[in-house]
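User: Please work through this fold.
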Amino acid sequence: MLYYGADYYPEHWPESRWPTDARLMQEAGFNLVRLGEFAWSRLEPAPGRYDFAWLDRAIDLLAAHGMRVVLGTPTASPPPWLMAQHPDAFLVREDGLRATYGHRRCYCPSNPAYRERTAAIVGALARHYGAHPHILAWQIDNEFGSRCYCEHCRQRFHEWLRARYGTLDALNEAWGTVFWSQEYTDWTEIPLPAATGGVANPSLALDYRRFMSDLYVEYQALQIGELRPYSRGQLITHNLMGFGYEGLNYYDLARPLDLVSWDNYPRGFWATAQEVDPAAPALSHDAVRGLKGASFWVMEEQSGPSGWETMGAAPRPGEVRLWAYQALAHGADAIVYFRWRTCRFGTEQLWHGILDHDGRPRRRYEEVKQTGQELARLAAALAGTSVKAEVALIHCYDSRFAFQVQPGNPGFRYAGHALDLYRALHRRNVAADVVPPTADLSGYRLVLAPALHVVAPQVAENLERYVQQGGTLLLTARSGVKTATNTVVDLPLPGLLARLAGAEVEEYDSLPAGAAQPLAFAGPLAGRPPAGQATVWCEALAPRGAEVLASYASGWLAGRPAATRHRHGAGQAIYLGTCGDAVLLQALVDWLLAEAQVRPALAAPEGVEVTLRQADGRQLLFLLNHAQEPREVALDGAWRELIRDRPARGLLRLEARGVAILEKA
């Protein structure tokens, strides 16, 4: 089933307006609406006094116009009475200051009183709506995040550490607390990273990030436990924030959910960039799809300019439609726009929806309506199809958290480095799954593992098994440096991956901002286009059975290996000892795709994204023109263009920000 709709806040508008909204939604082709995720004060105006009548009326009205509902649990934004009664429930920031009332996500997820009130409101909603025929799904809270450093969290952290390490002797050994005389003799002596600045002990800082992630997983489980006994086939989800968010381990958060969803704002919230990088939302789509290896929903899709105190750029004509199709192309089965109508009051007065403040349909509504009419015709063709990838990108939260503690170079960002590699795949229209380092990799021809900094033995074994069985693996600089407790290995780098790489790191250099080192290709890459440049970080490699693929061309590292290939078992491991600019990464990825015999579904000109959804021998080819000018794509054979319902062969013209979906004729 394909779902299409918007996030709606009937409590923000006079009830006399609701029928107009429902009619316009129906005319736009909507069959799904999200409600209630910020309505706690309206749903429970006083402790234990619930008022669901207004929400009942809104749901009934929307259902009469053909829409089902995703009902949000309202715990992201507590009512004033709750926080006034329990001031210790406010989150404490890393700087030690306690949050004050007036913003969302101001609560501490470990606070006992807050958890008690959470169970009460979620349980009441579950009992009232659990068997409701028009409630399709529940959304728990809203965009979990924001680490807390309060006394409740400190106590829970000590409990978490006891469960993880068992004894203080084991913790002291794992953390290396002999450094700076930090050996603990009582659990209560262990501080929060806020109190130490976050870097005095990197092991503590990494474990606190793990703990806070586990705490939100636990808080989510509390709500799931209230919902499950009363739900009658209703799905449970949470709206994530895509690949760019760094605060939680989304693999753990996604595991107990029926499906995952995320909030997609390609033009950002306050950004004013002239052009959108289409690879960024594509990576987030793929990352969210990879959390459960299944199709996903977009619970908030940008429909207008966004911002709080300041406002970002407005979506250009065609972009709202293009972004919806990009989500579908990467495996989405639902598109829900944020928001239906721009709010007249509160923080988000500048965060625009499909309708402006006056509620009148204009350009953005007409674009959304056009898309809805098209999707109604496409739903049957899309049913059951999914994305099948031959390439995987490993996303390691332990490494990501460790780099938050010690980035090593001020210009290095784990997510940015991963996006740079992904972008090289995206330019070639090669699909990728985003997977954890412990995933079964046997079904992939090529695996990219950017900056796999924290490596446990089971991860090293998994990668070695993949290569031995015939896979092609790319490792990049700063891999294998840390143990699972965020201490440096006592092995030649890349540590547990050195045997697999067939090379060791002899020296490394952190480059200043703007500096770069030119490279020269060698071996099988010799004679290819310019090699590009090493950026951010340079490692001088010593081959131990590997062949050299590239060397530094100048500077104090001139002539020393920068990239190697090691044939291992039936496969090969490539080690790139730098981050690299776009020229280097594109040349290397192009060669790796050829080596792994991975081909795009269709060759296309610059700016045109091509993706494939398939099932039972059916193939649907999505052509998305992200350029500001028309593009022509050469088709291989006879196709049928589904949106316009006409044959397509030879050259297919795509207008600026145009879309075509093709099925083999």
